[in-house]
Amino acid sequence: MERIPILRMGSYLLVTIQIDMQDQTALRLQEDLAASIEQNTARGVLIDVSALEMVDSFIGRMFIGISDIARILGAATVVVGIRPAVAITLVELGLPLSGVRTALNVERGMALLDKAQRGELR
Amino acid sequence: MERIPILRMGSYLLVTIQIDMQDQTALRLQEDLAASIEQNTARGVLIDVSALEMVDSFIGRMFIGISDIARILGAATVVVGIRPAVAITLVELGLPLSGVRTALNVERGMALLDKAQRGELR
């Protein structure tokens, strides 16, 4: 089973999703991330999906799941690099990612995490 | 097929809707806007509808869709210039545009986008 690496950057964790995930891989990622947030007392999770050209409802719900799990563990999540076509698909699937913070690229995502950490975002 | 122009103003995009859009035109606008947000790393989208005297549920839902897509791509959306009669129609159609920011005119819409960019709005 493929396993997606989780990189530590200071108090943030970076996940770069480069493959179209199977369900098992996605569930494993959720578990690994939850464990990693605890181990590293991480404050934020940055999920880069710029390599993904498609997304289905399973992946969309996974973003929401990861975001909820991270929040419960005290970390903010930002999904970055969503392509325009993927954004349209998500909305068409009825998954507008309402509870998930998003940003155009990694740089802006980091800025958003910094803001969240300073308590400037809810 | 008609195509609605998207103007760049600094880090914002301005769309002026002057025709009663056919469905295809509206879908094309969604795609063009999504691509344009990415290309210009836009922070906000201003949709001026002051020229529209009527609106149907398709257009109402399109505002919501554009707003969701833009948010996923990290940009705030403000719909400005909704006429009183159009506002009444939207509510009667059961589309109170709850998730969509609106303002009376372009000036106020810009101020709202500035606020959103400073993180004063969610």
Automatic annotation (TrEMBL), chains A, B:
SUPFAM superfamilies: SpoIIaa-like
Pfam families xrefs: STAS (PF01740)
Domain called STAS: residue spans: 2-113
PANTHER family: RSBT ANTAGONIST PROTEIN RSBS (PTHR33745:SF1), RSBT ANTAGONIST PROTEIN RSBS-RELATED (PTHR33745)
The protein's name: RsbT antagonist protein RsbS
Naturally occurring in which organism (per UniProt): Cupriavidus oxalaticus
